[in-house]
Structures are given as C-alpha cells and as structure tokens.
Specification:
Layout (H helix, E strand, L loop, with lengths): L9 H16 L2 H4 L14 E4 L10 H10 L4 E4 L10 H14 L2 E8 L14 H15 L3 E5 L11 H15 L1 H7 L2 E5 L7 H11 L4 E6 H4 L6 H8 L3 E5 L2 E7 L2 E7 L8 H11 L5 E3 L6 E4 L18 H10 L14 H22 L8
Parallel strand pairs: 1-2, 1-10, 2-3, 3-4, 4-5, 5-6, 6-7
Antiparallel strand pairs: 8-9, 9-11
Helix pairs in contact: 1-12, 3-4, 6-8, 8-10, 10-11
C-alpha cells in the first residue's frame, strides 16, 4: 500500500495536528480563562494501585497497612496473585482489615481477551477468568472488576485491534448475568497502548454500560498518543476505576518519546486534569499507578508508523503534539553504582509513589483523609 492510500498521510496528519495545537492554545483550559468550580475536589478519593510498588512483592495485608500509613482512601489490587488465597474466608478477612482502616478496595486482574497474546489461561477460559474475578471482587466488597484487553502489539497483525475488541465484547456478554448478579462492574482499562479512549468507549457502549465500565489510565493514554485531558473527556461517562500518573513527552527526530513519571513531574497539566475529574466523575477515586524510569519512542513521522492506528487517525493527536512541544528530555532510572539492584528498585518505587501521594494531596487537593 502506498502512502497516498492511507486514510491519513503524514503531510495532512501534521497539518491537522498543527491546526489542533492552535485550537488547544486558544481553549479556555490552556489560556487560563475561568472554568466551572470543581465539586469539592477534596471529596474525590485518593488511592494507589499495588503495581506502583511491585518490586516489594507485598501481599494484600501488608499493602493495606502501608495504605493506611499513607492515609489514602482506596487501594486497587490489580492482580489476583496479591492474595495468598482466594477462599472466601481469607478474602473476608482482607475486607475486614480494609474496613477497619476505612479503605475501599478495587479488585483486578490482567488480560481477559482470548485472542490477545497477553491472555493467560491460568484460570481457564477468558469467561472463567472473568467469573472468578467477579466472585473475588464481590467477596471483597469491590464495586469493580478491573481487567484489560492486551497491549499495543494487538494493534498489529490480521484484523488489527478491532479483532480483539470483538473478542472482548463477546467475553463480556457471556458473563453479563454473573456481573449483574454480583453487582460488580467489569472495568476495562485502556492498557499499554491497546485501545484509544474512543475505541474503549465504543467497546463499553456495545457490550453494555449497565455492567461494563472503564478503568481510566492517564499514563496509558499517552501510549495511544492522546493528551490525558482528552482521554478524560472521552472516558469520564464510563469511568468506574482508574490508574493515574503523569507523563513527560518530548520531540525526537522522527516523532516523540514518552516517559511516565511521578505526579507533577511530567508535562501533563495535572491541576487541570484533577479539576476536570472533580467536575466529570467525582465519585470515581483517583488511584495512582506510578510506573516510571524508562521512555518509549513513537516515531509518528515514519512512513509505516500509522498503519496500526488507521482506525483512530488524528483524533486527539493535536493535544499530544502540544505536550511534546512543551516537554523536555528526561533521564531514565539507573541503579546507582555499587547498589543492589532489587533494593534500589524498591527504594525508587516507594519514593516515586510517596512523592505522588504528597503532590496529589497538597497540590491537587485530592483525598478525604489528611
């Protein structure tokens, strides 16, 4: 296929992006014009995803103790291995511990798309896996069952991402009754560059928003070349859970590079993001999923780059370009010379998360606990 055969070639793409950047700079959000005052931003609950401190290998009880020490409102257990048992008695003890601390639990797992390479049949079929998660979530008192489709690799190959979207919709429909009976919403994340926010919104609408919602991930948004503020606008109507972090984006010769960061240390307008969150979905907790220390290039000026993204074109790309123009290069994390690697990673992850909690409370005003 020639470049001219693509729905959006590089020249028209960049022209559209340039126009979009101009629109962004003229918008009320960018220009600092008054906006509607948030609905008491302090009422937006603050928490974190246990993946933020994955190097420590802590199980649920230890994580809850740490969450209580950090004075957060919620915790997302984003994998089932965080529990030493899935027996109802054990899970009820975890719930009792969380209730004692005044911490709400969100439960989650990994991929539930059977056609994605990310899917692992540890719990049987995709439907069995999701049913198991729903049962665990109900026992824990979690209103959501966080899961995802796959990764950006699913955009490549025959059928592209749409093939996997269809599979995921069917899996959800096959367990619809179980979700409704449990009173738990299947919360699908925009994960690792798999779905653009509009693609996830469409998946939810087709599967059924009465039992399927979104886990809104602001970091993953930048891996589909979106400004997280655009992602928030698109997914807020469906949001029931979250994974939030900042990103630094900067221009490189053939496109842009993205490095996820601690809150307030990237180029995303996190103050505007938090205020808009309080306007659009104040009932959904902001749960920090801090993953940082490495960058990923997006060579969008290369001829063949856009083929896996034909279904989204330039939608939302102008905001991403604007962020890249505002951002600056960031050094990756390196284990200090002479330090033990595992301990250095643990210390790094704890520091990144605790700075993010502090920023979210003191600068953004999030969280109901002091």
């Amino acid at each position: 296929m020639k470049q001219s055969d693509y729905p959006l070639n590089r020249r028209s793409f960049l022209q559209n992006a340039a126009i979009g950047v101009g629109l962004i700079s003229a918008s009320p959000l960018a220009s600092g014009l008054p906006r509607k005052k948030p609905v008491s931003i302090a009422k937006v609950k603050l928490g974190f995803d246990n993946f933020s401190i994955r190097a420590l290998g802590w199980k649920a009880p230890r994580l809850l103790e740490y969450a209580n020490k950090q004075r957060v409102d919620t915790i997302l257990f984003s994998d089932l291995d965080v529990f030493e048992s899935h027996d109802s008695g054990y899970l009820k003890e975890i719930k009792q511990q969380a209730d004692k601390f005044g911490i709400a639990i969100h439960a989650g797992t990994g991929g539930i798309c059977p056609t994605s390479p990310k899917f692992i049949d540890k719990y049987g079929s995709a439907e069995d896996h999701l049913k198991h998660l729903l049962k665990v979530a109900k026992t824990l008192g979690s209103p959501v069952a966080r899961c995802y489709l796959g990764s950006m690799q699913d955009r490549k190959g025959p059928g592209g991402i749409q093939k996997h979207i269809e599979s995921t919709i069917q899996v959800c429909k096959n367990v619809r009754k179980h979700a409704l009976d449990a009173g738990v919403k299947i919360a699908i994340e925009n994960h690792a560059g798999d779905m653009h926010s509009r693609e996830l919104a469409n998946l939810i609408e087709r599967a059924g928003p009465e039992y399927v919602g979104a886990t809104l991930d602001s970091g993953n948004a930048t891996w589909t070349m979106e400004d997280p503020l655009d992602t928030l606008e698109n997914l807020a109507p469906f949001a029931v859970s979250s994974g939030i972090r900042d990103s630094m984006i900067w221009e490189i010769d053939n496109g842009a590079s993205v490095q996820w960061t601690a809150m307030g240390e990237g180029c995303v307008d996190m103050k505007a993001f938090a205020n808009r969150w309080a306007e659009l979905c104040p009932q959904v907790p902001v749960q920090l999923e801090i993953i940082s220390g490495f960058s990923k290039p997006f060579p969008y000026l290369e001829k063949d780059f856009w083929k896996p993204y034909e279904s989204i074109g330039a939608d939302g790309f102008a905001g991403f370009v604007g962020l890249a123009k505002a951002g600056t290069f960031m050094e990756p994390f390196k284990v200090p010379k002479g330090a033990e690697r595992k301990k250095a990673q643990q210390d790094y992850q704890i520091a990144e998360l605790e700075r993010s909690i502090k920023y979210s409370k003191e600068t953004l005003g999030l969280g109901s606990r002091s």
